[in-house]
TrEMBL record, chains A, B:
Protein's recorded name: Glycerol-3-phosphate dehydrogenase [NAD(+)]
The Glycerol-3-phosphate dehydrogenase NAD-dependent N-terminal domain, residue ranges: 5-174
Similarity comment: Belongs to the NAD-dependent glycerol-3-phosphate dehydrogenase family.
Ubl conjugation in keyword set: no
PROSITE patterns: NAD_G3PDH
Amino acid sequence: MGKEKVAIIGSGNWGSAIAKLAGNNVKKHNDVFDDSKVPIWVFEEEYEGRKLTEIINTDHENKKYLPDVKLPENVVAIPDLLETVKDATALVFVMPHQFLGKCLDQLEGKVNKDAKAITLIKGVGVDGADIHVFADVIQDRLGVSCSALSGANIANEVATDRFSETTIGYRTEEEGKMWQKLFQTANFKVQLIDDVAGVSLCGALKNIVAVAAGFIDGLEYGNNSKAAIMRIGLLEMKHFCQEFFKDVKEESFLQESAGVADVITSCLGGRNTRVAKAFVTGNKSFDELEKEMLNGQKLQGIHTAKDVHVFLKARDRLGAYPLFDKVYHISWEGLPVAKLTEGL
Amino acid sequence: MGKEKVAIIGSGNWGSAIAKLAGNNVKKHNDVFDDSKVPIWVFEEEYEGRKLTEIINTDHENKKYLPDVKLPENVVAIPDLLETVKDATALVFVMPHQFLGKCLDQLEGKVNKDAKAITLIKGVGVDGADIHVFADVIQDRLGVSCSALSGANIANEVATDRFSETTIGYRTEEEGKMWQKLFQTANFKVQLIDDVAGVSLCGALKNIVAVAAGFIDGLEYGNNSKAAIMRIGLLEMKHFCQEFFKDVKEESFLQESAGVADVITSCLGGRNTRVAKAFVTGNKSFDELEKEMLNGQKLQGIHTAKDVHVFLKARDRLGAYPLFDKVYHISWEGLPVAKLTEGL
């Protein structure tokens, strides 16, 4: 079997951080990987008067999205998506979820049939009574096996080599081990678990819990209350996934970085928690706060709460997940935030 | 069967908070409990020129340990231990663990033989290769069935009715339900589990994890690293207890307030985390920090880490719990704190 040729699809903060690890690791494991080049697809834009691809390829730094972190020289920025994935056998999807559809439109029928993929995209797709994780979407559209990586992973901390962990939910153990080789370092520990759906869902649902934690911060109820909300949220995540996805593993939620640790990181200081706190203390709408605090980007937790609400309604299961429910009603229906803990 | 007569043994911050709940609940459930009086044993001392028992019985407030919280009038402070427990059928132990031995010396042979007990005391007893939880000690010494309560419970937050949760590990389901009736309120949710040892051990071992989290805070590694340490610590707690105590339940650690939620609360802002952070940033010994920051009280996490180290050595299991090990070596043997994450 030939060596794996990696391609990274997406070059934001997280994509650039992961490209750094991958660029170094293909050299370390050049028995498994082609180490000459790790192409990274860059949505071309100008930054300080220069093209972003040129900055990356000349200065070896993504100055816009991951400043002050040197990328290995074998990480090569390419503005054309199809050129990026040409010959690639190991496709790493790492982009905001709203761009995935367009990207797959371009890629469909164009990737290596025996390629493997992994998605680092957070989120979950809901369409009425249907719910799906992006690993399945990629797998179905491209006809390639797709694993998922998710964990308590603040991109800058990973990129600057501070101790952290992540979880890969794999399709086959062999693929899991290949992905682990591509990403693991002495300070970035990769655990493997046979649960693509569980790992994927954690990354989406934890944002709802993080919003609830931010409400508690805003109410100034204290760490005791906050820990209670995180515990209840974690269990709702687990129960929700066990109800609607077959074969998810309890460990993904309760023991893995993708579950319990990511809930903790997100609730300690993530954007969902910060903005939800401001919602309580600042007397502004989420619309206003998204503009002010997130540069117009969407606050994932409240949108996931809405998706989950729509889904549970379509499945006639409203009321079964009281914390998710409360986050929806407070965020979208004007329920007073002090009602959050009632009846949990 | 007659009504349960409650006695509370201990009147610090947590004892006073729990006395407030119990005093109210015996009235609410006066079909089960004698609601005329909830005696609380007070180690007599002077506070602002008055006896503490007099303050509690006149002002209905423990001004020294839980100021600004009104206690129900049926909570009656008694300076004599044996008088406190006279006729009691439901004994609540809630005192610093170092006073338990003396207390049991006095009580042995003097309590109702069909009484039930519950301990809210944090900690674990280690003596060479022997390890024991206080619920077992109380049960053995007094010949009464003893359950355990532990959770993410900051006394002031519970006393001021902010939303929180706790876990009771019970001996029999019937006893569990009785204790739940004594403590549960609309904002203080009590979960029951058939695991006295697991619930007890959580309250002791989480302090080691909280010290490790404080080291990470001091190192400024960020929330990502901190969440990783908490996850690893939680799993070491679980594995340690599964190795040395038969029948502990995984849920106590991973799903209950006593486990995951208490780890979170403690690592967010508890004293172990705060002092351990100061150890890293302030260049002072733990001896000095205990004097300066804890009024001379011991920092439980580092002492529990030492106890666990002694125990593991006696059992020839050094090295099996790397995080516990690192906390011991950093706290007591001068290992540089930056080594904390190495090899985890």
